[in-house]
Write the structure tokens for this entry.
Amino acid sequence: MFSKLFGSKSSAKKSVAAKAAADTSRKPSAKASASKPASSKKSKPPRAKKAPKPAWSLDKFPVPEKEGLTRFHDLDLPLSMMHAIADLGFEYCSPIQAAILPHTLDGLDAVGKAQTGTGKTAAFLITAICDLLAHPIDDERYTGEPRVVVIAPTRELVMQIAKDAEDLTKHADLHVEMLIGGMDYAAQLKRVQRKVVDIVVATPGRLIDFMTRGDLRLDMVEIMVIDEADRMLDMGFIPQVRRIVRACPPKDQRQTLLFSATFTEDVIRLTEQWTIDPVRIEMEPDRVASDSVDQKVYMVGSKDKFQVLKNILKSDDVTSAIVFANRRDQTRWLYERLSKSSITCGMLSGEVAQQKRTSTLKRFKDGNIKVLVATDVAGRGIHVNGISHVINYNLPEDPEDYVHRIGRTGRAGETGTSISLACEDDAFMLLDIEELLGEKIACEQPPLEFMD
């Protein structure tokens, strides 16, 4: 059954593998071997060998069948994948996973309309990892030639995808590498050259850097994943993405998975260029803005906004919060004023150095920072469970960003609260947000204790 699932791509993969064997210009993976010098010290008695751990089996991960839900057990996934899924505590597929995995596991191209928080990352990673496990390459492989490439628009999102990939390959002999700008190139290059890499997760700019210098080649790529294609368009990355796609094998010799929060005409044109007869899955926004998030809009004058924000953050209900602003200068201003108000906070925006962003996000995840002030671009990669509140200091200009923002809370079966501070400058944006959601959002005056 398992070989049948992946049989549709075997011929293309064999031809790619053959190409690797024929290419003698690449550096093969180094296998260190050195004889130890004779020791003059008295040899110690051998230690008693530990009993090997019992092999993991599906019996240790029972999940009952439920009507209307798809179990990961039902997808005939390899044992190492099921072990990783069990470790992560996943039992049932999310709607997009249940809809798309039966097709992508069979080797088909796919185009998915889905926001963050729907489980799309696990969907494309499970597809890629299962494919690699089903089609191992026995011939000699070379460093700097990944079999799977995932590109995403922001560094934080790339970091999160790479972490998810590490978690899902925990029990598989697969190597994942992350390439992002703002970090030391030489250190990243050293890791790439250390051993053959199976999965590369990268921002377009840094991936182009590696390609231009000849440190990475994409002619062996079997699966190409493009995440948040609409955001790539907004940020002007499409020329770079086109160059990356051209460096990969033709679309009939690879599997292509593309995800976007919206299907604009531009996105549709790109899918037509880069995929072959893709299965198309659409998850509507109202499934993301679910009952797990209590949405509120406080109508407040612009001069009172900060006072209301400060009082909200100091309330007992707020245990962990993200405050979104529309511009970098606003995030910096909020960060400085909140810090002076004795609120422990951090800032994520494009003007913050990558190492600082990484350490700030870690402190937030560890609970050492109560409040994170972020822009939409920097906030795309924040996947932290237990965030009690998302506060929109400004309503976003793009309604899709509202859905992404509130998706930071109410995750993993928990509930959360979204509070938007709407003033005379941005209240008109509510109409477009409500149209996208297909529902009205209750507007009210802030409680008196937040106005003091």
